[in-house]
Amino acid sequence: MSWVKAGRVNFLDGNTSNLTKANLSHTHADEEDNINRRIWREGEYIFLHHKKSGQCYFCSYTPVLFDLLCSHRILWGYQPDMGRLQATVIWKKRKMKGFAFGFHTLCYASYHYGAGKNNFIGRVKQMQKDFSAAHLSVDHLDDNQANNCIWNLSPMRKEQNAGKKDILGCIRYPFFFYAVYFDGEYRVVCGRICGDVLYPGYDAAFVICADPPALIELAKRFYKTEWEDGVSPEKKLKSNPDNVCLQNYFGDFGATGIRKLLLEKNQNEFETYKMQ
Hints:
Blueprint: H1 2-5, E1 9-11, E2 24-26, E3 31-33, E4 37-42, E5 45-50, E6 56-60, H2 63-69, E7 74-79, E8 84-91, E9 94-102, H3 103-113, H4 120-133, E10 136-140, E11 147-148, E12 153-157, H5 158-168, E13 175-182, E14 185-195, E15 200-209, H6 212-224, H7 233-239, H8 256-264, E16 271-272
Parallel strand pairs: 6-11, 15-16
Antiparallel strand pairs: 1-2, 3-4, 4-5, 5-6, 7-8, 8-9, 10-12, 13-14, 14-15
Helix pairs in contact: 3-4, 5-6
């Protein structure tokens, strides 16, 4: 009935009094609004604006995830110390006790556990159980809590998460290091922008890392490696600590074009990184 009241159904026989399931068709409207949050779709992305905090989060669009996020059973709150949205579930007009999850957790559960509006409680609980047993957390590759796209979320141990965050944020212009999570592996492009402002070029390598330790080791090696002119990302950070971190330079979406390229490249176009 909530979909009917919100005007998000079509009546197949034209009779608005016929509320039988066979007569209702979802409009697949691109926006849903209530007192807690506003949700809308723009192209390949879903946005959620949390009204009380003013914070906005986004994720990859799928019809299942859009319907799930629009569920009125999910009430969002903001955790300023973590920079995260935390969900409370309404069950039989009451808040469920002892069950909460973040926006990133719900997105990951939808991407990889098949969580939808009718089964998300069980799927999220199963995911939380699996992650707890393996001592895992959901990591944001670009360290942007607002970015919950499928390619930006991956499972990592907490110590790995911290190690990655410390190193990737230190790689600054003209050096860059972009990573996406794809089919259980990490696709990386790392390199250096060269040339002048009007005619920039770049020197880059495309690499696949099989797991978080390989990703972190590659990032650390890249950070310390000196180029032909004797400059390394480490030295550049010391001499120009205010230089921009390019992985976060292109607005809230990050460098979507570069990440799209990483996702679309053939497997044989990457070099497989071997741990040292």
